[in-house]
Write a structure and sequence with these properties.
alpha+beta, Arc Repressor Mutant, subunit A, 35% helix, globular
């Protein structure tokens, strides 16, 4: 007996509201942020864009042809703790 995983509409935004947080929408938010400020950190992406896994979205954008550099730096979270974090810099948009 094969068990079905999840609800068939769980990953779909069928309500037409503006709270779509799909991976596609997260990538669009990330690209829009790059247009405004050309770089952002993982902390900024999580806090300001509600992207909990920015590294995954950057990986996907790179696979689509975007040239995004990673610069390792130090950052402080809202809790006041220092972490080694990535700053992503868009060097060239996809062709």
């Amino acid at each position: 007996m094969e068990k079905e995983k999840g609800h068939p509409q769980a990953a779909q935004n069928t309500h037409g509201d503006h709270n779509d947080n799909s991976t596609h929408t997260q990538r669009l938010h990330l690209l829009a942020a790059f247009e405004k400020q050309h770089s952002l950190t993982t902390i900024e992406a999580r806090r300001d864009l509600d992207i909990l896994m920015p590294a995954a979205r950057v990986f996907e954008l790179r696979a689509m042809g975007y040239d995004i550099a990673t610069i390792w730096t130090q950052g402080v979270t809202e809790c006041g703790r220092k972490h080694r974090i990535a700053r992503y810099v868009l060097r060239k948009a996809a062709p």
